[in-house]
């Protein structure tokens, strides 16, 4: 264990397994060895502007850029003077090439319906919808709000906005009316796009009903386009609401892409910060486009013949960057699934992989833990031999869950890319490149070329290798956040003030002796127990490595003597009994895995954990429950309100 210095985080997680890239994978990979990675990394670090400037030539430019970067901290201007269009790079660029008639999007609906769009077909739909938007008065620079199920029309709507220079603000289909209205008002959205309803676990999610309620409180939104997904009855307000299919029937398929300045905004995406008010993260055109294209190619090593499936919802940044913009600008085939992983049963994902012969599968650790809990027989019933690469995103993966993913899903032959990044970073920042970097389970391994991270103490100075601290990014990168919509001051304070000159991402991390990064949770998830700072994820990993534990969340609660006591919430694998005996066993297990300082003071057994719609555990709520306080703050993102009620009942 590393020695703790004042203000630093004690690292207690030991993980020594190393998984080198499979030689057959490396032989074909774009970046196929550690030497190749190091060479590229050095080239980028020595002269980042020359590096990105050279790569940017891969985009289509209506007007070439004059300067690669103009950095006025904290505001970056990339590819100054250039004009391009993201929709052009995703669609038009592939027309007239052998990709023209390849599948761009393969879509599987929850009830089992499916559709395929080739690049040519998608281009046509996007052009038509772009003309629909223009016909309703949408102009370059207008904000278009999107609240839709996971259907191809969601991607079409985004690409159509990009085509005419409108800025989309996609709000995840699970948010409430209140949340939509807040975001619409913050962004001054002009037009709303939605659907009658969406499918989720066989239930109809009443999207239009929520939009009606939201629009009553969104005075800037004057028009609303409604897609008929389900065919249920909806209220259509005369003069405001229009059916998607009626407008499309009359739209022309001729709509040249608008030349956009490199720094024209592409989209706003709201994310939670440390306060209750969501921030509108702003991303712009050329830098974002280049970064998601290159990271898709490097990290997923996508081939023209691959079927690639990212299971995220497009309502989150993962879907923006790695279902739509990255894969399409790389000319890939991107699979989109509408529904839940357990609809109609827990084998749905494996059935989809078998049906479409998926080669690359990118999902979230929270999903992997659910798969483990549901049992191996769901996996065993399907042929997953088409898979060649696996990925994870959104949170750290517990080494034991990693091992299950590796063995059970990857058949021990697929590399796993644990990708660390954020809404703010726009694209993947750190990951083991699958053909080059040996993996340590639980580590997001190494930074991508052009990304220069550092771990610093609260004084802003780098800490010794092996010690924890704040993760910062020392140099601007093309897809970095360009601002918080309408709040430059908050942007500066949040990301560029505690450590001057460097981007403060809000995560704790440590870099080990081999230069591998280990994310240790959010800065505000750090516990301070008897003067020792502990990361929540380490305690959770220890618990999940016990066979009885399916999922665990640890939080601090006030404690008279220790400052903070460790409270954990655990859900159990089927077949295990909650009770005093197991409580004792788990405490002993954590003591064994980490040490006495991490032994939980309280263990709460619960049927489920409260989560945001993207699957993140809502620790703020758990902290309140652990401390016996009432829950406060914005709870609009909770996956299932009943979980909270059950947690209280489960207290014994
Ligand atoms: O704490 C990190 C965690 O998720 C945060 C970013 O969340 P969001 O903006 O919603 O974007 C999620 C999808 C990119 C980070 O600050 N996180 C994300 N990926 C990882 C991770 N933590 C550990 N390992 C990861 N691979």
Can you summarize this structure?
By secondary structure, the protein is α/β, with parallel strands linked by helices. It has a domain at 526-651: ANL, C-terminal domain (GMP Synthetase, Chain A, domain 3). The strands form eight sheets. Strands 12-11-8-6-7-14-15-23 form an eight-stranded mixed β-sheet, with helices on both faces. Strands 5-4-17-16-18-19-20 form a seven-stranded mixed β-sheet, sandwiched between helices.
How are strands sequenced across the largest beta sheet?
A: 12-11-8-6-7-14-15-23
Q: What proportion of the residues is helical, as a percent range?
A: 25-40%
Model regions low in confidence, pLDDT < 50 over at least 5 residues: 1-7, 632-639
Cα-based radius of gyration, to the nearest Å: 24 Å
Please, how many helices? 20
Ligands (ions, cofactors included): adenosine-5'-monophosphate-propyl ester
How would you explain this protein's 3D organization?
The structure is a single chain. The chain is α/β, with parallel strands linked by helices. The protein has a domain at 526-651: GMP Synthetase, Chain A, domain 3 (2-Layer Sandwich). Helices cover 31% and strands 23% of the residues. It contains 20 helices and 30 strands. It has an eight-stranded mixed β-sheet with strand order 12-11-8-6-7-14-15-23, with helices on both faces. Strands 5-4-17-16-18-19-20 form a seven-stranded mixed β-sheet, sandwiched between helices. A hairpin with a 3-residue loop joins strand 28 and strand 29. Helix 2 packs across helix 3 and helix 10 crosses helix 11. It is globular and about 70 Å long. The chain binds adenosine-5'-monophosphate-propyl ester (PRX).
